[in-house]
Design a protein that fits this description.
The complex is a heterodimer.
Chain A lengths: L5 E3 L2 E3 L3 E3 L8 H4 L9 E3 L16 E4 L2 E4 L8 H7 L1 H6 L3 E6 L4 H11 L5 E5 L16 H13 L6 E4 L7 H10 L4 E4 L3 E3 L2 E2 L4 E2 L6 E4 L4 H12 L6 E4 L5 H9 L4 E4 L2 H4 L3 H15 L16
Parallel strand pairs in A: 3-4, 3-16, 4-7, 7-8, 8-9, 9-10, 10-15, 15-16
Antiparallel strand pairs in A: 1-2, 5-6, 6-14, 11-14, 12-13
Chain B lengths: L1 E14 L2 E7 L12 E4 L10 E9 L2 E7 L3 H7 L6 E8 L11 E7 L7 H6 L4 E8 L8 H4 L4 E6 L6 E2 L2 H8 L7 E5 L2 H13 L6 E4 L15 E3 L5 E3 L6 E3 L6
Parallel strand pairs in B: 7-8, 7-11, 8-9, 9-10, 11-12
Antiparallel strand pairs in B: 1-2, 1-6, 2-5, 3-4, 3-6, 4-5, 12-15, 13-14
Helix pairs in contact in B: 4-5
Classes of the chains: A alpha/beta, B alpha/beta.
């Protein structure tokens, strides 16, 4: 048994496998399939200041090796989360990362203030491609990233801040640095790529929103490249994600420089994906006689 | 609910573009109620989403679903061979809950919407069922033997090639004064369910009515909020977790 525990910004994870925001709700549903205390942590469904109903349906489509979604941040609001979902997650003894999504810049400050000290980490969602206000608009230009990060940070006195970066940008390194200079304690990437799936018979996009965020196995090479670049652009820790379906996939991200990973779409293909990935990581490390997963971090040797 | 690796037992064509697929589970998935569904992988890792299908029959660890060819996923399932391994997640959703005192149940089904109605008829032998089912034409008709277990069965088609030229909703309303109804259970395309809701309103029919809805799904267990429908109170409900069965007055159709 290899030691899978990792420490990021002072927060201890029993293993480096975190449920990605939007794919895992607040954990209750997957807990009906298996005891989610097996996973390292959860990034919650994106929380806004007020509840949101999200986009019209259909909200999902499939492409080769990928899916697209445009849920549009349906959520019960941050206060509802604190009142009704937080205690359940605390009882599972996993790292709780509250994913925060504002409609406006000011929202980010307000939501962070409400969560400060109540959760283990806050993940700033400035990269959602499916809402028209806020969301990705704040996550593309380095200046905006720095500004929203500073505002969030100033409202988080006790809770470390992770900034989730969009891949739909000019330079991921520049944006990672912008988050770092705004005071982020770590960054996570990548969020989904903007995409479209078309029903040729109807000559219409399948998703009601027309475009959606592309995720799943097919985005892994792009995500790995971006995680590698971000990890080598900043000094703060990087959490990698994008198409992780197996333990080997997760270890590739860690090898590229990530300290931990998030798993999203794989949970749809296999409801037991996360415990399986944790086991596969352990098996690979054992097979290679590596005692501690941290030994893999940033060990990629470029040609 | 369990995520399991099932083994394909049998695939057979039961009507035009329509197949039944029976898989064997490695262990029991627990009690399965009529109207519940499963999520099944399509056997190719490049298709990440499982497909949701109403469970037609649960016989020990053998589970049967039926489906119409719609896209690459259903085509692949129709070509599955005995012995193939397919991941399944089940049982999902709430199913049809028939109150003890509802003795006479009207069944209205259209097209592939008839599939989740089969276990309702086959699994509630103490109830009397009055079934109205509609197909596009006689070549699309299937599972009639199961529906013949009803006290009364009316089959209609859009083109009149089998039974009357009619739809299932109108067939019931033509017959409404001849059958007792403590409960109506319906499943079919959105246009059919909307017509049912409108007809019930126009004719002031107060019989409790349960409908099973369909929507493109992600996780199938209520976590991803992809498959929502609008509730009459303005909020959203998750078709996979809060449904797929809803009181007809509870949802916007």
């Amino acid at each position: 048994m290899a030691d899978l525990s990792v420490k990021i910004c002072g927060v201890e994870f029993k293993n480096p496998v975190i449920a990605a925001s939007g794919t895992f709700g607040f954990g209750r549903e997957f807990d009906e399939v298996y005891d989610i205390s097996a996973i390292g942590g959860i990034s919650t469904k994106g929380l806004t200041n007020e509840s949101r109903l999200g986009n019209p349906v259909p909200r999902i489509a499939e492409g080769h090796g990928v899916i697209l979604n445009a849920v549009g941040l349906q959520n019960p609001g941050v206060e509802h989360f604190i009142k009704y979902d937080l205690d359940f997650l605390k009882s599972k003894n996993i790292v709780i990362i509250a994913n925060v999504a504002g409609n406006t810049l000011e929202d980010y400050g307000k939501i962070c203030k409400k969560l400060d000290g109540l959760v283990d980490m806050v993940e700033l969602n400035i990269s959602c491609p499916n809402v028209h206000a806020g969301g990705m608009a704040l996550g593309i230009k380095p200046k905006n990233i720095e500004e929203v990060t500073e505002l969030a940070k100033s409202n988080l006195k006790k809770t470390p801040l992770m900034v989730k970066l969009s891949p739909n940008v000019e330079s991921i390194s520049t944006n990672a640095k912008a988050a770092e200079s705004g005071g982020a304690d770590c960054v996570s990437l990548v969020n989904t790529f903007m995409g479209m799936v078309i029903d040729l018979e109807k000559r219409k996009p399948i998703i009601a929103n027309n475009t959606g965020g592309v995720s799943g196995a097919g985005i892994k090479p792009m995500a790995l490249r971006m995680v590698y670049e971000a990890a080598h652009a900043v000094k703060i820790p990087v959490v990698g994600m994008g198409g992780i379906m197996s333990g080997k996939d997760a270890l590739e991200f860690i090898c590229a420089g990530a300290k931990a990973v998030q798993v999203g779409t794989a949970n749809f293909a296999d409801a037991l994906a996360m415990p399986r990935i944790i086991k596969e990581m352990n098996d690979w490390l054992d097979k290679h006689n590596i005692k501690n997963v941290n030994e893999i971090v940033d060990t990629l040797k470029l040609n | 609910m369990k995520e399991l690796i099932s083994t394909v037992k049998e695939v057979k064509q039961i009507a035009d573009n329509t197949y039944s697929l029976t898989v064997t589970l490695p262990e029991s998935a627990g009690e399965i109620k009529g109207g519940q569904f499963l999520n099944i992988a399509t056997g190719d890792g490049s298709r990440l989403l499982k497909r949701p299908f109403g469970i037609v029959k649960a016989d020990g660890n053998d589970i049967t679903v039926c489906f119409q060819l719609k896209g690459d996923g259903t085509v692949a399932l129709s070509e599955a061979k005995a012995g193939d391994k397919l991941a399944v997640l089940l049982p999902l959703g709430n199913g049809f809950i028939i109150p003890e005192n509802a003795k006479n149940v009207v069944i209205i089904g259209g097209g592939v919407g008839i599939f989740p109605l089969v276990p309702v008829i086959c699994g509630n032998k103490d109830k009397k069922f009055y079934s109205y089912i509609g197909f596009r034409n006689k070549n699309c008709a299937c599972l009639l033997d199961e529906f013949k277990k009803s006290e009364k069965l009316t089959v209609v088609t859009d083109d009149g090639s089998l039974g009357e030229k009619n739809n299932a909703v109108n067939a019931y309303f033509n017959d409404i004064n001849n059958v007792p109804a403590d409960l109506i259970i319906a499943c079919g395309p959105p246009v059919m369910l909307k017509a049912l809701k409108n007809k019930m309103k126009e004719n002031n029919v107060k019989t409790p009515c349960l409908v099973s809805l369909e929507e493109r799904m992600g996780c199938g267990i209520g976590a991803c909020l992809v498959c929502v429908c609008k509730k009459s109170d303005g909020g959203n409900a998750r078709v996979c977790k809060d449904g797929p069965v809803f009181d007809i007055n509870e949802v916007e159709l």
